[in-house]
Write a structure and sequence with these properties.
- The chain contains four helices and no strands.
- It is mainly α.
- The protein is elongated and about 75 Å long.
- The model has no long low-confidence stretch (mean pLDDT about 55).
């Protein structure tokens, strides 16, 4: 049957489909607030100084 030829869509909640349309309308340079754990991943290292590097760098007197 033709239905079998076409693989069924992934079982994803309808909520995932809505943000996709909104993302197209919203500006790209405005990323969504990522969780504290993803903060380092979401925000690129400015000046090559990341939170991890700051910890390694010696604290000024």
């Amino acid at each position: 049957p033709p239905a079998a030829a076409e693989p069924p869509p992934p079982a994803s909640p309808p909520e995932v489909s809505v943000p996709r349309k909104t993302l197209d309308a919203l500006p790209d340079p405005a990323p969504a607030p990522a969780p504290p754990g993803d903060e380092t991943k979401a925000s690129p290292p400015e000046g090559g100084v990341t939170r991890k590097t700051r910890k390694t760098l010696p604290t000024p007197p």
